[in-house]
Amino acid sequence: MDEQQTHETRQTRYKKRKLRKGRVFFTFILLLLIVIAAYSIFQYRSGLKLAGETKLPEEEFVPDEAMENIENYLIVGVDSRGEEKSRSDTMMVLSWNKDTNDLKLVSFMRDIYADIPGYKSYKLNTAYYLGGVQLLKDTLNSMFDVPIHHYALIDFKSFEAMIDILAPDGIKMDVEKDMSAHIGVTLTKGIQKLNGKELLGYARFRHDAEGDFGRVERQQKVIEALKEEFLSPKNVGNIPKLVGAAKGYVTTDLTTGEELKTVLSIVAGGGLEIEKMTIPVEGTYSYNSYSDAGDVIEIDTEENKQLLHDFLKLE
Fold first, then answer.
1. Spatial distance between the Cα atoms of 168 and 155, rounded to a whole number of angstroms
2. In terms of Cα–Cα distance, which of 137, 278, 148 is closest to 217?
3. Which pLDDT score is estimated for 76?
4. Average pLDDT for residues 217-221, to the nearest whole number?
5. CB contact at 8 A, 227 and 272
């Protein structure tokens, strides 16, 4: 065999070895992807099965006209306790600017004395009791001229379960004072990890001098902590089960595909800082009491409307 033939033979063997190694690597990657996909599907179905019997029924909802760059999501938390009708305990609007990927969260105090379309004036949280998500949306439209494009409705028991799925070891919170009154748990001051029931109790506590304003501030702290946990690499393995549970626990007008597309778009945009606002704004309200509504917060609607529009950059 001459030198040329020897060289060609070596090249052929080298190419075959390289090809075999490439095939082995490709096979390994393919198997890894199959395992990850199988695990994700199993966890998703596990979460879906876990939540299937507790989901609140779908609600009548007519979205406002779509905007070019902003989507607003009405988030409603209720404590149904098995009752057919309940008041909304948490009312927030999450605003997503698709151009800048900015997220803004607006909390509405439940004791706002509100003009509810078709009814007398009551506390804002009564709107959901009287006419569900649609009437609450119509009330916010009427008072603040804020468009609502989607909604998400969750019962507090479901919230507890979802927290325990996302972070089985608990979520770190700085509890600013001892808390126990009317929240079903006892919390002590200091930094600690809270499970789902404890975190919900922390978010709902309002029996101190700050009242509902302190409660809303804690709810916003909880939202921030949940965002950090969701993005934490240590919780990646819990996400498929959480997505399945969310599909079972959270009632929304969005399809599964739309939910995933929205979440992926927000995450891919980076940043994920959440600016927060509370309505009413400090200095724009007073307290009053009415025989048919009890103790309420009377607000300067026009001033709060303008401040809200400025915050959300609504034209």
1. 20
2. 278
3. 95
4. 93
5. yes
Mean pLDDT of 301-306: 97
Would you state the structure tokens that stand for residue 257, as one six-digit string? 């595909």
Sheet of 70-78, strand order: 251-252, 150-155, 70-78, 88-97, 102-108, 274-279
What is the distance between the terminal CA atoms of the chain, rounded to a whole angstrom?
Answer: 83
Mean pLDDT over the full length of the chain: 84
For residue 141, what are its two tokens?
């439209």
* Dihedral sign (CA 12, 13, 15, 16): positive
Q: Which two tokens stand for residue 306?
A: 């303008």
The residue among 71, 128, 143, 51 whose CA lies nearest residue 313 is 71
Q: At how many degrees (to 10) do helices 156-166 and 3-51 cross?
A: 150
Preceding amide of 240 cis, omega within 30:
no
Task: Write down the H helix ranges in the chain.
Answer: 3-51, 126-144, 156-166, 196-204, 211-231, 239-249, 256-268, 301-312
The answer to whether residues 47 and 243 touch, using CB atoms and an 8 Å cutoff, is yes
Which 3 state secondary structure label does DSSP give 193?
A: strand
Residues 6+ apart with CB under 8 A from 4: none
Show the tokens assigned to 109: 């105090």
Q: How far is CA 296 from CA 45, 79, 96, in A?
A: 44, 20, 30
Q: Which tops the pLDDT comparison, 86 or 218?
A: 218
pTM of the model: 0.82
Q: How far is CA 276 from CA 182, 221, 242, 254, in A?
A: 26, 10, 25, 24
